[in-house]
Amino acid sequence: MLDRETLGRALPWGEFSGNGRTDSHKPDEPPFRSELFTVEQLERYAVTLAESHKLEVSHAPEKLIPRLLDNERVLVQTYDLLTEAVAADRRIAPASEWLLDNFYLIEEQIRTARLHLPRSYGRQLPRLAGEPHAGQPRVYAIALELISHVDGRLDAVSLNSFIASYQTVQPLNLGELWAVPIVLRLALIENLRRIAARIHQLRKDRDSAIAWAERMIGAVEKSPTNLILVMADMARADPPLSGAFLAELTRHLQGQSPYYGLATTWLEQRLAEQGLKIEDLVRADARAQAANQVSIGNSINSLRFLSSTDWRDFVENHSVVEKTLRDDPAGVYAQMDFATRDRYRHGIEEIAKRSDLSEPEVARLAVQLAQRQADHDPNNRRGHIGYFLIDEGRPELERLAKSRQPFGVALRRIAGKSPLFLYLAGIFGFAAAVLAVFIAFSARRADANSIFWLSIPAAMCAVQMGLSIINWISTMIVQPRPLPRLDFRKGIPDRDRTVVVIPTMLTSPAGVEDLLAGLELRYLANRDPNLHFALLTDFKDAPSETMPEDADMVQLAVEGVERLNEEYKSKEGPSEADIFYLFHRPRLWNPAEGVWMGYERKRGKLAEFNAALRGKSRGFSHIVGDVGALQDVQYAITLDTDTQLPRDAAREMVGTLAHPLNRAVYDPKRKRIVEGYGILQPRVGISLPSAGRSWFVKLFAGDIGVDPYTRVVSDVYQDLFCEGS
């Protein structure tokens, strides 16, 4: 096995310079080409490597980003040189073709690396203390070693085996695991830079050979004796007699005038003085080109591999913290979606950074605290590790881990104990300051009576201004806190059966058809055996209890729901419960309004529906579907008539409410929800067709055409008080 010092001496023959000099483009760093290992050899080498790595205590300056920028500069210079050669209709080597054809990919990977590795992140990575990687991030040194022993050819088997074997000796922290794809990009780009530097020098040598060959040919065409003068100039210029130079020169002179034999003889004599032959150097150049072609092809294909790999699975499969957290006493952690699991792991990471404990030790401590609570009461939400990582139990975990809190975090914790007081104090304090300035300014121009009456509307304006500014400041200071969620992508469990209800009105036959089409569309976007869809309908206000068109509209709705059940139940299986339901109410007399109408309209329909699920409702005149199948419904999703339900959004909402930290805990004495949430109000977006219907919609629509559930959006009341507005 070649070590790094030996590799430094084992330069390809094609790079030999007759005078031993190097210029600014001459490569002095070899590509990463250590001894090629099998997977078994990689595993043994990873263990040896981990045993030799020692971490330094102090933080070295960040060097990865400056080196990346320098690599980019060299690659761009090489690309420009090769582009000029192609424009001049000159032959280029296969490795150069690889670089030209895939340069767009290299540029994309450089941009990705710069985006995903900010300087602050790189400074947090543990660094090595000993040579040959002193001061470098440990994970970057691992990437260099892996790429060196596979000649830049990465695949899932070699990568997973190498990292897993290394961690049997030294576990990597979460930040390092997430940095693996970044440092692999950096290492591959470093390898490409080293190959590109050789390609650059080879191209320069070939261009020099072409220039001298053209001078010789031109001189011989005028007078054969002029060849001596050209050779004298070449001797004084002392060009690098590399394999590329000699191969290109002999190729151009071969088969020409016999006078060129004089130049060949002179070159052979110059090389013989150093014990070299033209044939040996030309063959060495061919071998170097073949090696460059293989290395650059491997590196570029490995960049594609990095782009196509799901690094979330990689991190979770190799994380020691992940394995520990899966011992959650409540058995919930493994059922959560990736974003929630990642949030838990970030909690571990934050505590460990401020503590003398390692990340696995903090994770084990969280599991122990949850186990203690679960042993006391298995149904207690405190028996879930999330209570100690992202909920009210976190201060206890931090205290036991002896985690040191920065001043800013401690200040936010103190403020979080009295959020309402600080919120109102900020609003009224700002309003008082604005009002004081107004009164002081007005005192010079108006009497006391006028100032008093003007102060009333001024106070209202000041309070509104204070509310807007404090809300804005709150969104800048307080980060959004997304609710934890279970992963229901494979289906909603039986215990969390849910119904989607649309309270609406039957106004016309065309309107009924639209309601049925909307119901079907919502189902097609959210198909699940434990998800049902129901229309809660009544008629529009009327001067009498019944109108001539009522019966036809009800019949149309009944037949439509029955048709949908018949069509889709056969596809789900004959034993499945009804998917679609219709609950229709008659009009009732409202003496206050003086009309016949649906009792309490939307609110009344929902109240009657809840009563129907408990077998207590008598308010519906028409019910389509087996209500018995809805008796064990756990959640209801309420939509307006014009509200869409994006693909799989129902599963995500149910998964959020089903999480132990979000489940509603009702206190019979206080007659209110004391923990968790009884109602969730997701963010609602505006569709593209609706955005241009009026100036009002255009002003308040916000980002149109974007799924509102693809990003976290700050909500002042939820972030400050953990309650909706």
Mean of the pLDDT scores?
84
What is the helix content? 55-70%
As residue ranges, the low-confidence spans are 1-24
Instruction: Give the second-level CATH assignment, the architecture of the domain at 32-203.
Output: Alpha-Beta Complex
Oligomer: single chain
Cα(first) to Cα(last) distance is 67 Å
Radius of gyration: 37 Å
Major sheet: 5 strands, mixed
Number of helices: 29
What do we call the CATH topology of the domain at 32-203? Aminoglycoside 3'-phosphotransferase, Chain: A, domain 2
Strand tally is: 9
| Approximate shape | elongated
Percentage of residues in DSSP E strands: 5-15%
Strand order of the largest sheet: 6-3-2-1-7
CATH class of the domain at 32-203: Alpha Beta
Given helix and strand content, the structural type is: mainly alpha
Short overview:
This protein is mainly alpha-helical. It contains 29 helices and 9 strands.
SSE layout and pairing:
Elements: H1 4-9, H2 39-52, H3 64-87, H4 94-101, H5 103-116, H6 119-123, H7 138-148, H8 156-167, H9 174-222, H10 226-237, H11 243-253, H12 260-272, H13 278-308, H14 311-318, H15 320-325, H16 338-353, H17 359-376, H18 386-389, H19 394-400, H20 407-416, H21 419-442, H22 448-477, E1 498-506, H23 509-525, E2 531-539, H24 550-572, E3 580-584, E4 588-590, E5 595-597, H25 601-613, E6 622-624, E7 635-638, H26 649-657, E8 665-667, E9 672-675, H27 688-691, H28 695-700, H29 716-721
Parallel strand pairs: 1-2, 1-7, 2-3
Antiparallel strand pairs: 3-6, 4-5, 8-9
Helix pairs in contact: 2-8, 3-5, 3-9, 4-13, 5-9, 7-9, 9-10, 9-11, 9-13, 9-14, 11-13, 16-17, 21-22, 23-24
